[in-house]
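Task: sequence design from structure.
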């Protein structure tokens, strides 16, 4: 049997067709990703701003080895 045998018609017939995604669903997904990116960016920026205080509180609690 050849590696280049034509199995495409049988394979295509059994495949499920992808459903199109509506524009409103795409917009909601994009909005959700933007909100998540903004929230994680703000959390990271505040962590960078307060990093010494966070580390010192971990030292006082004896948990700085986790950091």
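Answer:
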């Amino acid at each position: 049997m050849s590696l280049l045998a034509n199995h495409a018609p049988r394979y295509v017939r059994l495949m499920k067709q992808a459903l199109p995604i509506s524009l409103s669903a795409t917009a909601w997904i994009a909005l959700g990703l933007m909100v998540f990116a903004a929230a994680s960016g703000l959390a990271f920026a505040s962590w960078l701003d307060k990093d010494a205080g966070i580390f010192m509180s971990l030292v006082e609690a004896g948990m700085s080895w986790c950091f």
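The mean pLDDT is 81.
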